[in-house]
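re: ur question from earlier - yeah i can do the single chain one, its not a big deal. heres the input i used so u can compare w yours
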Amino acid sequence: MSQAARFADARHYDVIVSPVITEKATMASEQNKVVFKVRKEATKTEIKLAVERLFDVKVESVNTNVRKGKNRVFRGRRGIQGDVKRAVVTLAEGHRIDVTTGL
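and the output i got, formated as tokens:
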């Protein structure tokens, strides 16, 4: 791998928005899975490449799902939550990501 290919490209930071830290995501981490909130336009290949480059790990698979936005009422005003795309990334055996430390 060339010197330029080793370092994370700026576009990799745009693909992954944030880690998801919930009870369900914590239970998934016991099975070597990490959950990220990603851009809606991101493909599985882009997500895999971004995680491998940013965290220096080997990714086995990527599963995505889109949670549709919901109608909400807050202080008498109606609003719509936006759609959220999540990626469940399965890491290769022996690789780990500690999402609490950040990048």
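The longest helix spans residues 44-55. not sure if urs matches, ping me
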